[in-house]
Design brief:
Helices cover 75% and strands 0% of the residues. By secondary structure, the chain is an all-alpha fold. Helix 4 packs antiparallel against helix 5, helix 5 runs antiparallel to helix 6 and helix 6 runs antiparallel to helix 7. This is HPt domain-containing protein.
């Protein structure tokens, strides 16, 4: 795990390992497992269909995962999206969705290398 790349992608691995009781192997297992988590694609599909309820559920789950794994930038960027969807609104959704997409891509790229 390249600490510098992870940090540049908004992943605080030191904090993440602490959250997992100092168990680096367990943290890495869940961190790399993030690549196969379906919530991001579920959220995007639901947003495209204007299904705010499903989009909210997936975004909220993604927010929790981001917090638990110390995916700092994704967490920071998804909070406004979750709140927008919580209010059943898609107004300005692209404005708040773009930073989420950028954060997700940075994480995906860092973990895929």
């Amino acid at each position: 795990m390249n600490q510098k790349k992870m940090l540049m992608a908004g992943i605080d691995t030191c904090d993440g390992i602490q959250r997992f009781g100092g168990n680096k192997q367990l943290y890495e297992k869940f961190l790399y497992g993030f690549l196969s988590d379906p919530n991001y694609s579920i959220m995007l599909n639901a947003i495209n269909k204007c299904d705010t309820s499903s989009a909210f559920q997936a975004a909220h789950a993604l927010k929790g995962i981001a917090g638990n794994l110390s995916l700092i930038e994704l967490y920071k960027n998804i909070v406004p999206l979750v709140e927008l969807l919580r209010n059943n609104s898609t107004e300005n959704v692209n404005f708040v969705l773009d930073p989420v997409k950028n954060s997700y891509k940075a994480i995906f790229d860092a973990l895929s290398e």
